[in-house]
Amino acid sequence: MKKFLALVLALCTVFALCAVAGADYSGNLVVYSPHDADPLAAGVAMFEEAYPGITVDVIAAGTGELGQRVIAESGNPQGDVFWGGGADSLAAWVDYFEPYVCANDDVIGDAYKDADDLWIGESPLPMVFIYNKTMIDEADVPTTWEGLCNEALKGQIAYCSPAKSGSAYTQLCTMLFSQPTLDDGWALVEKFIANLDGKIQDSSGNCHKLVAAGEYAIGVTIEKSAVLYNDNPDIGYVYPEKNSAVPDGVALIKGCPNPENAKLFIDFVTGLDCQKDQNENWKRRPVRSDLSPVGLCELSTLDLGNYDFAYAANNKADIVEKWNDLTVG
Questions:
Q1: Sheet strands side by side (includes 218-222)
Q2: Would you give the distance in Å from CA 318 to the centre of its chain?
Q3: Which residues 6+ apart lie within 8 Å of 99 measured at CB?
Q4: H helix or E strand, kind and range, residue 312
Q5: What is the mean pLDDT of the chain?
């Protein structure tokens, strides 16, 4: 009798597991994302194809705007998952995220995820200086952050406000950390601001486009945007010395209305198929250790500086405030 009951229980367990494995996922999912429109649409489309029963709504805006939205909605969250934005920005908002160990945790290195699982890296992002060869001689393109302060470039640099863009915030911090001390870093930033000549963009996605359109000679942008111009003979880019490669991340919004679908989405965008597609078709670096980047140099070949991730994350409000004060002043 005991053996029979054990068999029945075992069969019940198997059937239960099969039911879960074959579950028909349904419901809604709200994705907050600062990603560029095309890779964002491609990733969401792949998810919808894999899970046709889930209705996905996307709210696209800058990292800073979306972060403030998450904070403002914390009493009644409207979004489920935050996909994109530099991890140093996400780390500044961890109070508004819930821990989640994604299904691909074992192939994502510790450097690319929060120690408390409050965000997960999904694509490392080196910074580049993109330039228009019809407007600047290649010999005059700077290869250091200090080079952006060359007065010959005054008013010709496309750069976004770090208050609005996660990648621009990482660029600002990379500039700060490139110097021996933070005071030296802020002195460099002040010179850089003067060289912008009051021209500061509202969207980081505009910087590379403005350079390609011939409105600016040079722009500070992210690798994934610059490589889209590999076939354009008028556009080039360089990786500056003392660079950074902070990953874009993905996070589960605390108290979100659709947590299970949000977890499914996090698993998906860190999964093999989506990571391959984002790399091969949209030139985004995979974060997975079992994938090598296609069409991109290895991170090991870049001159990466000592990026103080903890300082950037823990002091974001103060750093942005100081930037705002310097640009207004």
A1: 157-158, 218-222, 127-132, 235-238
A2: 21
A3: 116, 117, 118, 252
A4: helix 309-314
A5: 92
C-alpha dihedral sign at 84, 90, 93, 99: positive
- Spatial separation of the C-alpha atoms in residues 43 and 48, rounded to whole Å: 9
Helix axes 166-177, 316-328, angle to 10 degrees: 90
Confidence class for position 106, pLDDT limits 50, 70, 90: very high
Q: What is the pTM of this model?
A: 0.84
Which residue's entry shows tokens 């002195």? 187
d(CA 98, CA 257): 13
| Radius of gyration from C-alpha coordinates of the chain | 22
C-beta atoms surrounding 315 within 10 Å: 17
pLDDT of residue 16: 40
Give residues with Cβ within 8 angstroms of 68, minimum separation 6. Answer: none
Q: What is the pLDDT of residues 190-221, one digit of tens each?
A: 999 999 999 999 999 999 999 999 999 999 99
**Do 254 and 97 meet the contact criterion of CB atoms below 8 Å apart?**
yes
**Structure confidence at residue 328 (pLDDT):** 87
Question: In sequence order, what E strands does 87-217 have?
Answer: 97-98, 120-124, 127-132, 157-158
First to last CA, the chain: 84
Which residues, 6+ apart, have CB-to-CB distance to 187 below 8 Å?
A: 179
Q: Do the bridges between strand 81-86 and strand 218-222 make them parallel or antiparallel, or are there none, so unpaired?
A: unpaired
Q: Is residue 25 predicted with pLDDT exceeding 60?
A: yes
CB 284 within 8 A of CB 276: no
- In whole angstroms, how far apart are CA 284 and each of 80, 184, 227, 232, 296? 23, 32, 9, 19, 9
